[in-house]
Amino acid sequence: MRFVRALNTCAFSLCRRVISKHFLHCSLLKPYIGAHQFSVSGTMAAVADEDSLRRALAQKQSSIDVQGGTVRQLKSSGAAKLDIEAAVQALNALKLEKASIESQLQVALAGAAGGGSSSASRDAFRQAVVNTLERRLFYIPSFKIYRGVAGLYDYGPPGCSVKSNVLSFWRQHFVLEENMLEVDCPCVTPEVVLKASGHVEKFTDLMVKDEKTGTCYRADHLLKDFCKEKLEKDFSLSAEKAAELKHILAVLDDLSAEQLGAKIKEYGITAPDTKNPLSDPYPFNLMFQTSIGPSGVSPGYMRPETAQGIFVNFRDLYYYNGNKLPFAAAQIGQAFRNEISPRQGLLRVREFTLAEIEHFVDPQDKSHPKFSDVAKLEFLMFPRDDQVSGQCAKKLQLGEAVSRGTVNNETLGYFIGRVYLFLTRLGIDKDRMRFRQHLANEMAHYAADCWDAEIESSYGWIECVGIADRSAYDLRAHSEKSSVALVAQEKFSEPREVEKLVITPIKKELGLAFKGNQKMVTEALEAMEEKVAMEMKADLESKGEVEFHVCTLGKNVSIKKNMVSISKEIKKEHQRVFTPSVIEPSFGIGRIIYCLYEHSFYTRPSKAGDEQLNVFSFPPLVAPIKCTVFPLVQNQKYEEVAKLLSKSLTAAGISHKIDITGTSIGKRYARTDELGVPFAITVDSTSSVTVRERDSKDQVRVDVEKVASVVREVTDGLSSWADVLKMYPLHSSETAEE
Amino acid sequence: MRFVRALNTCAFSLCRRVISKHFLHCSLLKPYIGAHQFSVSGTMAAVADEDSLRRALAQKQSSIDVQGGTVRQLKSSGAAKLDIEAAVQALNALKLEKASIESQLQVALAGAAGGGSSSASRDAFRQAVVNTLERRLFYIPSFKIYRGVAGLYDYGPPGCSVKSNVLSFWRQHFVLEENMLEVDCPCVTPEVVLKASGHVEKFTDLMVKDEKTGTCYRADHLLKDFCKEKLEKDFSLSAEKAAELKHILAVLDDLSAEQLGAKIKEYGITAPDTKNPLSDPYPFNLMFQTSIGPSGVSPGYMRPETAQGIFVNFRDLYYYNGNKLPFAAAQIGQAFRNEISPRQGLLRVREFTLAEIEHFVDPQDKSHPKFSDVAKLEFLMFPRDDQVSGQCAKKLQLGEAVSRGTVNNETLGYFIGRVYLFLTRLGIDKDRMRFRQHLANEMAHYAADCWDAEIESSYGWIECVGIADRSAYDLRAHSEKSSVALVAQEKFSEPREVEKLVITPIKKELGLAFKGNQKMVTEALEAMEEKVAMEMKADLESKGEVEFHVCTLGKNVSIKKNMVSISKEIKKEHQRVFTPSVIEPSFGIGRIIYCLYEHSFYTRPSKAGDEQLNVFSFPPLVAPIKCTVFPLVQNQKYEEVAKLLSKSLTAAGISHKIDITGTSIGKRYARTDELGVPFAITVDSTSSVTVRERDSKDQVRVDVEKVASVVREVTDGLSSWADVLKMYPLHSSETAEE
Question: Coiled coil located at which positions (chains A, B) (predicted)?
Fold first, then answer.
């Protein structure tokens, strides 16, 4: 059985890694597919445009070369001055035309890579977001005072609060709503478990080493960087060469170590820092290894995903659920991947929080009783066929996608819908989010179907949630390795008659014929599948003897009619025993949060118009702090009211912050807008106060006693800001606001 | 600087480990102190009792020996039958008296070890609790289908839910209430950080190996087991020998490798499994080691505590708090300790959840503005002096304990009070909980004061929370190693005049006198403390020359008057720069939860009286499921009402479970009582239902529409069951109840 786990727990580009080495029929000659792997919302139109521009550029260059030759010839032959001038003018005109095509190409490339916005403006936007996040301690590079460790980040106070809000909502939206069985397993995992799952053998990236310094790089990253750089900056590239490089980018994840190594050699790629030659690529296991106990003989790993903890507990969980299917188990926890050279900031880290669901279901019935709750939802979907034919993601109705078979089954569809609701309620922009189906070569051979929730960010489309129907693979793998049957039973209300294949090797005859090899021949006969067995039965009856391949012996043997009896018998069965299928939505919490930061960030001019102010437009659900309390001026009476308000907010369970610095109200608003605090309470009297909403900057007057409950209702989602505006008088203040 | 971290983050017996090797003035000859280290609530009275019984036993034995001799002599000298009979009778009487003393000793030993209950009954109680916990999947030995790994446990569905409730409440009670800055740092930690904290060098246990099989044991455990076994089962032990063994138990944690090894040899202790000889004890580092990145040159560890992540971020957090003290940072997360041979089930594990607070405060002002909120609390405290003088823990008022100096300062006292409130609100029995002050030899030399919240369980008194004033130690250690100043500033409203020591070595003269050694002499002069420098100044003025020890040279040199100028100058200072003190409450969440299980568990007879039923009396706050919904009989109408109720409970955010099996209501109640579900709703009509409270078994009738809000109010703590009883009619049903 091939290793194909990871294909989707692996939201997180893991899939990119382990998958398709087994699918190398998609060779380097395969046509370009999957624009998603290269561009943000790049379309085939942009690609065609680029192609014709490159051809035009090459033509123009050759015209320039010809005209240049003409000019030189005229000059050397001492032609008339006017003739020479005319020829030079023509040459310059050609050069201008070339420059114009070059800038068109530049625009086309930026368009393909950035959904319209240029690469530079995306970088600038990202820098603005990241600067704000770091300055306000949403996150902190870990161990900063010791110069940090690549790929490790701390959540600072507001980031930690956002994370805890996202996780609470996840529990509410999935675990509580669906009555899931939540478990909490250790990160330290013994080798035997990760051998069964395949991670010990196959959870690898291909690595190259600087042959002189020993510095390590991811082989595919170097090749990818080379191709992208060439495509973006080398305008002399022929259309054919450009197509070749793009093809490499498209199939990058499918390349074997040998293929990668050959390309690196062919293109003369060297170590980025030193320009030294590179070693051949070889696999590096991405798990953090350790040793359990003091003896040094029990290897263990930090888990690369949380799912295995659920699979190994299937039997107990099934029992806990009253031996009934379907049911789902869930786990939130840390996972670890020892990346070779982490890049992309918060998106590719060495330790991260996963939230995973394993929904166990009878493979014969993948309907879902609550599917109708989500069937009417419409959102961007990107089915496999549309990717291959070069179309864009488009809005589909979920119910139709399931009924047409685009999505394999109702349960998978139900989770896609629930994930859509989860992400949009957090504040992810529904127009910059899509569900992309895995291509055939991305998907494990056992998987029934697999969709990634991808969110568009300045880094491109990012896999944030993987939703896969993994069939029975994981439970079977652990059943085999542990010898504990991880199965479910369906008791029949009355016994059913079933036709069963019965193979009875005749040991005496086999012993005479095969002596020491008897056992292996017997086992091979017993292991025959129905089709093979029935063919043998027919052959034995017609010919009396057949050739039979015994793989444990590595050779064919001759089986005679008297050595085995094969028949079909009718048996009564009282129950059906089967390995459940598992449908697995797997959430990369850190990635979702980072995309949420980008989707929530905007700037607006200050009142004086002299600077741009940053705002995070978090919904109250995820806002790190729900409201701030400011006394308008430094004044004991107002401060007392502020402290009173603080007490009532604490009692109502609302996280808040008092700011009694003497700074101007405008500056204080700006400070809290930058933290994404949705409401600000300004104490400007002892009986009533103003409440200001962050994005509209609307203010209302509310009695001191009522403020906490008003804020609580809005932050809990029981009422909206529009409701508040209807209930309380609008306040327009001269003293306040920026 | 000595290593002394761990002394209290180390709630969790870590302190037992690293501490007092530096305090070995408390040698083996030290008198017996600290009953806590040996017994559950063992008092000096019990100890005295045991002592006199052992002496009586020895006397009785020698009387028996004498009398036995007399009998033998009478027999061999052919004495009169009557005389022999009388002597034998006397002998038998002595033997009976001895047996009676033995059983008294047995009772005394059980009393000392078990707070009155016998060791057997404690084991039986624990077994009942643990059986229920495992059967109902509160926890599961991790990777069970692969025969598990010692010291690793999963939280199954109800356990996971209890844990998540405890952590939510912790956030509410500490983080939100105190406006703490919560952070979330990675578990993977580079070596440099744990070198600075001292863990790389000193976070060890002493280990011995079976010399033939290589099996590893904790050296102190083997010695402890030997002593306990002897004391409990060997009645021939002399009172002197018993005192010696008890003394070893008392100072066990202070023994050096050499001392432990000597005792193991002296007592002939061998490997428990094989009886093979043991190696000498040697230190084993308890951190799980790994390697960060692919190069293999960056060692890392899985963090043994979460505190370091906060310390290294001090500078950013201080800035985030507006450069103001005091403030507290908090972190919840996994910690890892590669125990040599984990015992005590859920109490000593290799991976666990810590919740730690680091409260940073000006060392010159440790008052707390909210101390008055907790000053009136009264609970069991066990100050150092009472432990040494052999008294019991007794009820003290917190305010008095602080004002009398028993507790070092208000901030420490405030946290002790808040921890008390936290634990009791979770459901910890206040009478089986105490705050024990660390003894002088348990405490780090820099620590100002340290108290453990200990909870009594079947294993004895368990440290569950450590609350320590660690002074400036941690921040100083990281300042030194990282060269980043982790300090706070107090800006003076107006500049202050300060007398400052100024030492100016005269380089020219020093150069002439010491040539190559000049630099070291200069540095040694500059490093002089005030007292030393002023003495030198006086000596130079009176004698013109002094002997001065330069430790970097390892010898004395002669310093003349013209080689250094020492003076005191008045300087103006605008601010004070200082390293804050840190007060650290550190919670072992898993230990608290286990103790909560024991404190919540009880049994009661079934209605038929034929069996004992298990109940967990969790308060609604921590109950894994808040209520269950049962249709009284299997009937479509009732099931529909049940489903409707389920929807409204979900909307109200109340975790619940529907049980529509046909089992009797009594059995269904028993099942949910065993999970600690506080309320059960039985649907026995379509308009109103009965709500039953778990412990009283009282039932009330509530309208279907009102049920969710009634249950929500009680589980949220907004009203009590008593309030519900007042509002709704009591229901007495013939059909229901066990």
Answer: none
